[in-house]
Amino acid sequence: MSDDEKIPRSRLAPRVPPPSQWWPHVKSLAEYLTRTEVHTYAFSVAANTILSLFPFIVMLFMMSRQVFHSQAMTAVVGDMVSYFLPANQEFVVRNMALLVHPRGRVQVFSIAMLLISSSSVFLPLEVALNRVWGVKKSRSYVVNQIISLGLAMAVGLLALVSVAFTAAQNTVLAVVFFGHTHNFIFNGIAHFFLGITAAFLSVSIFFLIYWVLPNRKLPVRVVLPTAIVTGLLWDGAKELYVMLLPWLDLRSAYGPFAVSVTLMMWAFLTGLLLLGGAHSCATRHALQMVREEDRKEAMEEAAARVS
Asked: Which pLDDT band holds residue 1 (cuts at 50, 70, 90)?
């Protein structure tokens, strides 16, 4: 589908809320997020995200230790994983770091698992985003695999760049503080820069998903604002989720499986947030198309009366 392709107004009008009212927008989003198919997509994404998350973390540790030979990058990988995960950060970081050893078998397996599972993550997302944007035909299996592998490599590259950038920042800060890094001022500044880098990484990942996965061309100006808002909301939602975890008391219900359940629930909520952002973006874009069509019709009617 081309950039200028438009969804017929007959399909848009019954579903697009009035532009001057905010409540219909909220109601439309709530109705979308309570659909059974949306929850199915979110659960599918959550399950495959868990499968690819741990190999991805091992790969980052392996690249930092054995490719770049940087202890600073290795430390930043641990800090960034702790920042993104809602709970049990020390458990995950410690066990993932132990899997990185010089024999290389686990690393190769991790990379293979990441590349294989990435296609499973992006396949239900493509179907869901195509439904949101009114695209009836999905990509072929081969093309979908190519797109999925490309997205997985792009996310990995973004993560490595973010890790390297944060490690360089910490090195510069250590020089500025003359090596006195064990104090709350240094830790506060370092955590602030880590938060900025993590927010940039989150927004970049959401942008790539919104822009690349739908089987139609979308202008950057359409998806970028949604990616920014969704990425920042995701960071805020993570903090809220962390605050609610003690009230959920998952460990008493699931015992040793509480770690997996905690991550699975967060991945599911992330999937819902991602799909909700896509729905809002498509609704806003549809409203803009309707207004442009009204403007053109008014201009044509005015020109016809003059002539």
From this structure: very low
214-258: pLDDT as tens digits: 999 999 999 999 999 999 999 999 989 999 999 988 888 898 888
Give the DSSP letter string of 245-276. HHHH-HHHHHGGGHHHHHHHHHHHHHHHHHHH
**Contacts for 52 with CB less than 8 Å, ≥ 6 apart:** 113, 114, 117, 118, 120, 121, 152
Task: For residue 204, give both structure tokens.
Answer: 């970049």
In 3D space, the residue among 170, 200, 154, 156 whose CA is nearest the CA of residue 67 turns out to be 156
The amino acid occupying position 265 is M
Interacting residues of 55 by C-beta distance below 8 A, sequence separation 6+: 109, 110, 111, 113, 114, 117
Q: How far apart are CA 38 and CA 61, in angstroms?
A: 34
- Asked if residue 185 has pLDDT above 70, the reply is yes
In this prediction the pTM is 0.82
The CA distance from 44 to 42, in Å, is 5
* Domain coordinates in residue numbering, the chain: 9-295
